Design the sequence.
């Protein structure tokens, strides 16, 4: 009976962990200026909020944050409370190009800010622990270790 209860609790814990892990993916921001269901100013506010919340785009550099803000301002200046259909062809091309730059910056930062947890066994013990790091932190750690190995590599005597 205890084993059955323990297994069912373990199953619920795994299911809830998967739900929590999948939830941040629903918060991905993608700018779509031509979407009539969501006006540009609403999308802009959501992106600015996500940039400032400290978690969604935590790995985005300050320069990229400023760049996104400048581009959002530029898009607002192009639109000037007009629908996309009322813009000239040149303005539409500029709008599309600016939108793609914002989307590329947000997608890259979102991927680098994604938290990845692994179960790792420490040397000398059979116990495992959870190790959680962002994708960018894992990349920096891997690069650091590679640099250390290269720096400490002993060349064979000739």
Sequence:
């Amino acid at each position: 009976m205890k084993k059955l209860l323990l297994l069912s609790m373990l199953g619920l814990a795994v299911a809830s962990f998967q739900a929590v892990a999948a939830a941040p993916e629903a918060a991905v921001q993608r700018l779509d200026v031509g979407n009539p269901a969501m006006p540009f100013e609403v999308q802009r506010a959501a992106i600015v909020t996500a940039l400032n919340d400290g978690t969604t785009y935590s790995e985005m550099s300050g320069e990229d944050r400023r760049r996104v803000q400048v581009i959002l301002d530029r898009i607002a200046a192009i639109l000037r409370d007009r629908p996309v259909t009322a813009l000239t062809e040149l303005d539409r091309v500029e709008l599309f190009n600016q939108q793609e730059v914002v989307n590329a910056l947000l997608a890259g930062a979102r991927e680098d800010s994604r938290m990845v947890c692994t179960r790792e066994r420490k040397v000398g013990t059979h116990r495992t622990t959870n190790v959680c790091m962002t994708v960018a932190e894992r990349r920096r750690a891997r690069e650091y270790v590679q640099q250390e190995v290269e720096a400490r590599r002993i060349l064979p005597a000739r």
